[in-house]
Design brief:
The protein is α+β, with helices and mostly antiparallel strands and 175 residues long. It is built from six helices and three strands. The protein is 42% helix and 11% strand. A three-stranded antiparallel sheet has the order 1-2-3, with no helix packed on it. A hairpin with a 2-residue loop joins β1 and β2.
Length: 175
């Protein structure tokens, strides 16, 4: 019997997984497909969570794909009647789509290291004043020689005024 990975194992492997795997696992398309499969096969919430862990174990290569049928069977221990149909649907609607995306994935670009500028800007360390307008108030920021930012509000926003009372046409006057 195959053992499902723990949440910690899944998170640790997810962080080191290739970007296209992370993108597929977190894609809206996969979530919608999984939700549809859950509704069609009437999986309980805990069963759906176990099936999701089994899928993640295979996508993140924690368990080999050959173990997926046994992982699925162990996650459906209470609802074995839907096993064959669910296995077929997962293969067609999730794994097949993933294989197609892997075949058409673009080649990984070689990382380019940016070159630093030849001379630093000459304005570093000088005093500069910046005025930023915000709704109903003005904030003046000043850069000092130590590049500390000092913000001073010059005006305070006006509080909202209460509405004047008018007679309610639906309320009868008190006699």
């Amino acid at each position: 019997m195959a053992i499902l990975p723990t949440q910690e194992e899944i998170v640790a492997r997810f962080e080191s997984a290739p970007e296209y795997v992370r993108n597929f696992i977190t894609s809206v398309e996969l979530m919608a497909t999984f939700k549809t499969l859950r509704e069609v096969h009437k999986l309980h919430l805990d069963e759906a969570g176990q099936v999701g862990r089994a899928l993640n174990a295979v996508f993140l290569e924690i368990r080999p794909a050959s173990e997926f049928p046994e992982l699925l069977r162990s996650s459906l221990e209470q609802n074995v009647s839907v096993y064959d149909a669910l296995l077929k649907d997962i293969n067609e609607k999730i794994f097949k789509v993933f294989r197609e995306k892997m075949e058409t994935k673009p080649p990984t670009p070689t990382p380019v290291t940016p070159t630093p500028p030849a001379t630093p800007p000459s304005t570093i360390g000088k005093l500069e004043a910046t005025i930023t307008k915000q709704p109903q108030s003005v904030v003046v920021s000043t850069l000092t020689e130590k590049n500390d930012v000092i913000s001073k509000p010059t005006t305070t926003p006006t509080p909202p005024q209460p509405r004047t009372y008018t007679n309610d046409p639906y309320r009868e006057p008190v006699e």
